[in-house]
Amino acid sequence: MSFLNPNQTTLVLAPMEGVMDAPMRALIADLGGFDYGVSEFVRVGQGVVTAQQILRDIPDLYGPVFGSAKLPLQLQLLGDSPELMAATAIEGCIAGARAIDINFGCPAPTILRRSGGAALLRTPCAITEIVSAVRTALPAVIPVSAKIRLGWEDPNEVDVIARAVEDGGANWITIHARTKQEGYRPGVHWDAVARVKARLSIPVVANGDLFTAEEVARCAAETGCTHFMIGRGILKNPFLAHDIRASQSLPALRADIPAQLSNRLRLGIERYAALTRDQAANSGFIPSRVKQWVGMVRDISDDVPRDVSREVLTAVKRARTTSELLDLIHRP
Ligand SMILES: Cc1cc2nc3c(=O)[nH]c(=O)nc-3n(C[C@H](O)[C@H](O)[C@H](O)COP(=O)(O)O)c2cc1C
């Protein structure tokens, strides 16, 4: 199973807790274009999280559960105890993980209160200890990476934080080019990523506001990065990874991609409902996820009515089950 190849352009599907779950990943795997994905975080709190518990939350860690397309999936852990993180990483491998990522970027208040995620950006020594414990616990064939923000409030903090990740023995680092305090405010600091990349000896995956192939090209030019992680952009354009591949003259993976964004989104929603139909035909889960998906597109885009046709919006609004959603979407 391959994850990040230092010598090749790599497109990584970002973790998005509550959005990018097993059914959604099945859709992205089906549409293709990504090299691997990172799971939503597993919170390592008071005790070791067992393989069974991990698989309950991330059933596709062991293999595809909706459809048959495969997307290598890296398991992400979040916690502040080196011992528990290391023991849970081993459980993760029992559950099927072939790569582990450690979350040092989550800004959610519930996580920060318990000193995990972005809270650790303020204690780089703790970052080194956690990465080192996880790295040491696993065989070398299992890559261990870390995902950080630039810092707590100053983008320049990234120099020390990234060095702490490297010192812990991580195989690569993903940098969301904002500080914790910046939340999701528009604007990312590619200059800070460029500086860190020049100083580190491990590969850097650039992340943040990569919504179009042009933005990826700009990021590549400004940072020198060849590895990119895409989150919200895939919700607006489910074929974004293909656009990026085409713009970088990488081999095309499929020929049947609709030109218009609205048709891309429509096709994405249809495939999503179809892939999960057997398991969730009469449940409201998928329609509510599609509503959330369209809502998030609305958050990052002013032109939702143009991006999603009126019929699809109406279908999404009315449908209560996957079957209804499919019927309404297909109604002329
Ligand atoms: C709803 C949501 C959930 C997220 N969950 C996670 C998570 O579980 N782990 C993580 O490392 N980052 C998480 N992130 C952050 C994303 O992985 C990514 O770093 C961020 O959205 C910036 O990338 P983008 O501009 O391409 O979306 C989440 C982001 C969103 C919007």
Features:
single chain, 332 residues, alpha/beta, TIM Barrel, binds flavin mononucleotide
Describe what is shown at a glance.
By secondary structure, the chain is of the alpha/beta class.
Structure, described:
Helices cover 45% and strands 14% of the residues. The chain has 332 residues and is of the alpha/beta class. The protein folds into 2 domains: 10-247, TIM Barrel (Alpha-Beta Barrel), CATH 3.20.20.70; 261-330, no CATH class. Strands 1-2-3-4-5-6-7-8 form an 8-stranded parallel β-barrel, surrounded by 5 helices. α8 links the parallel β7 (204-207) and β8 (227-230). α2 (51-57) crosses α3 (82-95) and α11 (261-275) runs antiparallel to α16 (322-330). The protein is globular and about 60 Å long. The mean pLDDT is 92. It binds flavin mononucleotide.
